[in-house]
Specification:
The complex is a heterodimer of chains A (163) and B (577). Chain A has seven helices and five strands; from the N terminus they run ααααβααββββα. By secondary structure, chain A is an alpha+beta fold. Chain B folds into four domains: 138 residues, Glutaredoxin, CATH 3.40.30; 203 residues, NADH-ubiquinone oxidoreductase 51kDa subunit (Rossmann fold, 3-Layer(aba) Sandwich), CATH 3.40.50.11540; 87 residues, Ubiquitin-like (UB roll) (Roll), CATH 3.10.20.600; 98 residues, NADH-ubiquinone oxidoreductase 51kDa subunit, iron-sulphur binding domain (de novo design (two linked rop proteins)). In chain B, a hairpin with a 6-residue loop joins strand 14 and strand 15. The chains are: A alpha+beta (163), B alpha/beta (577). At the A-B interface, helix 2, helix 5, helix 6 and strand 5 of A face helix 2, strand 8, strand 12, strand 16 and helix 18 of B. Bound molecules: flavin mononucleotide, iron/sulfur cluster (2 copies) and FE2/S2 (inorganic) cluster (2 copies).
Chain lengths: 163, 577
C-alpha cells in the first residue's frame, strides 16, 4: 500500500469519537492531508459500506472540502457582513494583487491559495483574514499585503497542516 | 475515577484558593477567537518570556471572552485577595512593562490600565486602586446582567475544577437529588425561557414534546453551527465557559428523559471545538457524564459532532442529516423532530444560549429568571456588537433595554463623528433596520412587529458611507452561496436576485428590476422548504422599505451616492462555488 493510501486508511480508521459517519470520515481525511483525493472517496466508501457516488454526494456538498493537494500557504479573507462593511473587498483586492492572482484560487506554482470565508468568527476585529488558519484581525489592505508577502520568507510548512 | 460530589467540590475549592489566595499573582489572558485575531498568541509568548527574564512567578490562565473585544488583546493581573487590574490593547512591549512593574514590584501600571474589578471575596471597604476606573462603570458593562456569560472571562474554560469552584454543576446536583424531571421542566416553563436560535419558541413547550415520548432512545442536540456573519456569541460561550453548556444539556436531558446528546459545531472553528471536546472529556472523567451521575439513576452520553461549511446545516433538520453524515439539507415536516428526528429517534434541538441559561434557572428558580426582561421576552439578550461602532464586543443585557441605548451608549456610537445609517440584525435573513427606527426595545415581539429579527443576537452597525445596494448585494450573495439547493425557488431565486442586484450595482439596472425582484421574492417565500428561502427576500425588501431612493438613484439616476459599489465590482457567484 502506498503512503497516501496508508495515511488515508489510518485517518479513517483512527477516528475516536463514537459516531463515525461519511462526513466525519471525510473530515478526518481532510484534517490529515488537507484534501480529498480519489483514493479517499474509495476508502470511505469501503469503510462505510456505501458507493463512491454516495461519498461524492457528501464531499461535493460542503465547500470546505478540497480535491487537489493544498498549496504551501492558505489565506482566507472573511467576507461576512461585518467584514464587508468595514472593508473586506479592498483587503481582498490587495491580497490578490500581492499574490498575482485575478480571482480567488491557487497560484500556478501552488505556493499560495486565496479564498473567501463567510465568517471567521472574530467579527469584532473586522476586517479579519486567516493566514494558514491563524486569525489576523483589524487588517488594512497594506497590513494584509505585508502578511502575504511575508509568507515567501517562510520555509515550506509540513504537508497537511490541516485546519 | 468517580469521586463523590462532595470530594469533587472539596478538590475544586482548594485548587481555587491556591489561585486566588495563594501567594502568586494570577494573570488571565483573553484567548477566544477575538483575542486570537487581535494577537493574543504574541502576547502570551511575550508574557512568558518577560516573566522568565524578570524572574517572576505567577499562574497564567487562558480565559475566554469578557466581551470587551474592542480592547483585545486583553489581560488582567490579580494579586492574592486583591482586585483584578485589566490592561487593554496590550502589545509585547506593554506586556514587558506590566511584568516588570506590576507583576514584579506589585504596582499597577496605572496609565496602561483599562479598569479594575474588585474582588468579591475581599473584605468590605477595601481601597480601590488609585487612578484606575471601575471596569463595571465602563459603558459596555453598566447595563449588563450576566447569566449565561456569568463566568466568561473569569475562569479557565479548560479547567472543570474552576467551573466547580464558582458553583458549577450545583444546579445539576440540585435537580438530580431534589427535583423530579417534571419539576425541572416546570422550572424552565416558569422562567418563560424562549429559544435564542432565531424563532424564540418556548423551550419548555418543545421539551414537553420530547418528555411525552417514551421511546427508549431520545436525543438532545445543541446547535452551535452559528453561521450568521456578525454573530459569535455561541462560539464565545463554548470557548469561555463550556461547562455551563454541558450542564444545561444535562439538565435538558434529565427534564426530558433523554440520555444522549450532541454538540454540533462547524469544522474549522478549532477553538470552540477543542474547548467543547475537552469539557466533555473532563466531565466524563469526574463521572458528571456517563452512568449514574452523582449517584442518581440518570445516565447521559454527550458527543461533539462536526459539520462541513454550510449555513443551512444550522437549520434543525439539516443539522440532523449532517450528524448522520450526509448533506445538510432540510427535511420535510411532518414528521417533526420530536417524533422522528436524529437516526429516526425523538429529538429536541436547542441553541447554545438557550441551554446555557438553564443551570442558573434551576439554581435561582424560574420566577427569578421571569422577573428579568420585558413582557414575554424573559431573561437577557446576548448581543454581538460589530461594524461601525466604537466599542465592539459581546454583551448580555436584560431584555427591554432599547436598541438605541445599545448602539449609542453601550457600544459608544459610531466612530469618527459619523451618522448611523442602518443596523443589520439577526443574521443575513434578518434584513436591515434604518437608523430612524432603532429606538425599539430588545424584545422578540417588538422586533418582529418592526419587521426585524432579534435572532441570534448579531447587531451590525453601518455608518453613513455605506451603500445600501452594495450591502444588499453582499447579503444576497451570502444567501445564494449558502442555499442548499434542495428546492428551486430558493436556489434559482437567490441566483436571480443576485444577478439583478449585480446589474443595479453596475448602474445597468432597468426600470422593471424592482418589480422583478419582488416577484422572485414572493415565489421564494411561498415555495421554499426552510427559513433560508422563506426569509431570503428580507434583505431586499427591508432595504427597499428604508432606502428606496438609493435604489432609484442607481437605477434611474445611474449613480451610486456613496461610490461604494463601483469600488467593488466583484461577483461572488463567480468567485465562490
Ligand atoms: C437557514 C437556517 C439556519 C439556521 N442556523 C441556526 C444556527 O446557526 N444556530 C441556531 O441555533 N439555530 C439556527 N437555526 C434555527 C434552528 O432551525 C432551530 O430553530 C434552533 O436551533 C432551535 O433552537 P432554540 O429553540 O433554542 O432557538 C437556523 C434556521 C434556519 C432556517
Ligand atoms: S434538472 Fe434540476 S432537479 Fe433535475 S437534476 Fe438537474 S438540477 Fe436537479
Ligand atoms: S429553502 Fe433553500 S436552503 Fe432551505 S431547503 Fe430549500 S433550497 Fe435549501
Ligand atoms: S464577518 Fe468577518 S469574522 Fe465574522
Ligand atoms: S472579548 Fe470576547 S469574543 Fe471578544
Amino acid at each position: 500500500m502506498d503512503r497516501l493510501r496508508q495515511t488515508i486508511t489510518e485517518a479513517v480508521h483512527g477516528q475516536s469519537q463514537p459516531t463515525v459517519t461519511v462526513l466525519s470520515s471525510l473530515l478526518a481525511v481532510q484534517d490529515a492531508i488537507g484534501y480529498i483525493p480519489k483514493e479517499a472517496l474509495e476508502e470511505v466508501a469501503a469503510f462505510t459500506g456505501k458507493t463512491v457516488n454516495d461519498i461524492w454526494a457528501v464531499a461535493s456538498f460542503y465547500p470546505n472540502f478540497k480535491f487537489e493537494p493544498l498549496c504551501q500557504h492558505t489565506v482566507e479573507v472573511c467576507w461576512g457582513t461585518t467584514c464587508h462593511l468595514v472593508g473586506a473587498m479592498p483587503v481582498m483586492k490587495s491580497v490578490l494583487d500581492t499574490a498575482g492572482l485575478r480571482e480567488a484560487g491557487d497560484t500556478p506554482d501552488k505556493f499560495l491559495s486565496v479564498g473567501y470565508n463567510t465568517c471567521l468568527g472574530a467579527c469584532s476585529q473586522a476586517p479579519v483574514i486567516s493566514v494558514n488558519h491563524r486569525l489576523v484581525g483589524r487588517v488594512s489592505p497594506e497590513t494584509a499585503a505585508r502578511r502575504v508577502s511575508g509568507l515567501s520568507a517562510l520555509p515550506k510548512p509540513e504537508d497537511g497542516h490541516g485546519q | 475515577m468517580v469521586l463523590s460530589y462532595q470530594d469533587i467540590n472539596a478538590q475544586a475549592g482548594s485548587r481555587w484558593r491556591s489561585l486566588t489566595s495563594g501567594n502568586l499573582p494570577w494573570v488571565r489572558v483573553g484567548s477566544a477567537l477575538c483575542g486570537q485575531a487581535a494577537g493574543c498568541e504574541e502576547v502570551l509568548d511575550a508574557l512568558e518570556s518577560a516573566m522568565e527574564r524578570h524572574g517572576v512567578e505567577g499562574n497564567v490562565s487562558h480565559v475566554g471572552c469578557l466581551g470587551l473585544c474592542f480592547a483585545e488583546p486583553l489581560l488582567d493581573v490579580q494579586f492574592p485577595n486583591g482586585p483584578r487590574i485589566f490592561y487593554g490593547n496590550v502589545t509585547p512591549e506593554s506586556v514587558n512593562r506590566i511584568v516588570s512593574v506590576h507583576l514584579r514590584e506589585g504596582n499597577p501600571v496605572t496609565p496602561l490600565a483599562l479598569g479594575f474589578l474588585s474582588n468579591p471575596d475581599a473584605a468590605a471597604g477595601e481601597e480601590p486602586p488609585e487612578g484606575i476606573p471601575d471596569l463595571n462603570l465602563h459603558p459596555m458593562r453598566v447595563l449588563e446582567k450576566r447569566i449565561a456569560l456569568r463566568n466568561a472571562g473569569n475562569i479557565d474554560p479548560g479547567d472543570i475544577y474552576q467551573y466547580l469552584a464558582v458553583g458549577g454543576y450545583q444546579a445539576l446536583h440540585k435537580a438530580l437529588t431534589s427535583m423530579t424531571p417534571e419539576q425541572t421542566l416546570e422550572e424552565v416553563a416558569t422562567a418563560g425561557l424562549r429559544g435564542r436560535g432565531g424563532a424564540a419558541f418556548p423551550a419548555a413547550t418543545k421539551w414537553r414534546f420530547l418528555s411525552g415520548s417514551n421511546a427508549p432512545v431520545k436525543y438532545i442536540l445543541c446547535n452551535c453551527e452559528e453561521g450568521d456573519p456578525g454573530a459569535f456569541n455561541d462560539k464565545a460561550i463554548v470557548e469561555s465557559d463550556p461547562h455551563t453548556l454541558v450542564e444545561g444539556i444535562l439538565l435538558a436531558g434529565y427534564a426530558t428523559g433523554a440520555a444522549h446528546g450532541y454538540i454540533f459545531i462547524r469544522h474549522g472553528h478549532d477553538g470552540p471545538i477543542e474547548r467543547a471536546r475537552e469539557a466533555v472529556q473532563q466531565a466524563q472523567e469526574l463521572g458528571i457524564l456517563g452512568n449514574s451521575i452523582f449517584g442518581s439513576d440518570f445516565d447521559f452520553e454527550l458527543e461533539v459532532a462536526l459539520t462541513g461549511d454550510s449555513y443551512v446545516a444550522g437549520e434543525e433538520t439539516a443539522l440532523m442529516d449532517a450528524i448522520e453524515g450526509g448533506r445538510a439539507m432540510p427535511r420535510y415536516r411532518p414528521p417533526f423532530p420530536a417524533q422522528v428526528g436524529l437516526f429516526g429517534k425523538p429529538t429536541n434541538i436547542n441553541n447554545v444560549k438557550t441551554l446555557s441559561y438553564v443551570p442558573e434557572i434551576i439554581s435561582q428558580g424560574g420566577e427569578w429568571f421571569a422577573g428579568i426582561g420585558h413582557e414575554q421576552s424573559t431573561g437577557t439578550a446576548i448581543l454581538c456588537l460589530t461594524g461601525d461602532l466604537n466599542y465592539t464586543g459581546m454583551v448580555e443585557l436584560p431584555m427591554g433595554v432599547s436598541l438605541k441605548d445599545v448602539l449609542f451608549n453601550v457600544a459608544g456610537g459610531v466612530p469618527g463623528g459619523k451618522d448611523l445609517k442602518l443596523v443589520q440584525t439577526g443574521g443575513p435573513l434578518g434584513g436591515v433596520l434604518g437608523a430612524e427606527d432603532v429606538d425599539l426595545l430588545l424584545d422578540f415581539e417588538v422586533f418582529r412587529n418592526a419587521g426585524a429579527i432579534l435572532g441570534s443576537g448579531g447587531i451590525i452597525a453601518a455608518d453613513e458611507d455605506t451603500c445600501v445596494v452594495d450591502l444588499t448585494r453582499a447579503l444576497i450573495a451570502f444567501c445564494q452561496y449558502e442555499s442548499c439547493g434542495k428546492c428551486f425557488p430558493c436556489r434559482m431565486g437567490m441566483s436571480h436576485l443576485l444577478e439583478v442586484l449585480e446589474r443595479i450595482c453596475r448602474l445597468e439596472g432597468g426600470a422593471e428590476d424592482l418589480a422583478l425582484m419582488r416577484n422572485i421574492g414572493e415565489n421564494m417565500q411561498a415555495g421554499s422548504l426552510c427559513g433560508h428561502g422563506q426569509l431570503g427576500f428580507n434583505p431586499v425588501s427591508s432595504a427597499l422599505k428604508y432606502f428606496g431612493d438609493e435604489f432609484d438613484a442607481h437605477i434611474n439616476g445611474r449613480t451610486c451616492p456613496t461610490g461604494r459599489c463601483l469600488a467593488s465590482r466583484y461577483s461572488p457567484s463567480q468567485t465562490r462555488r
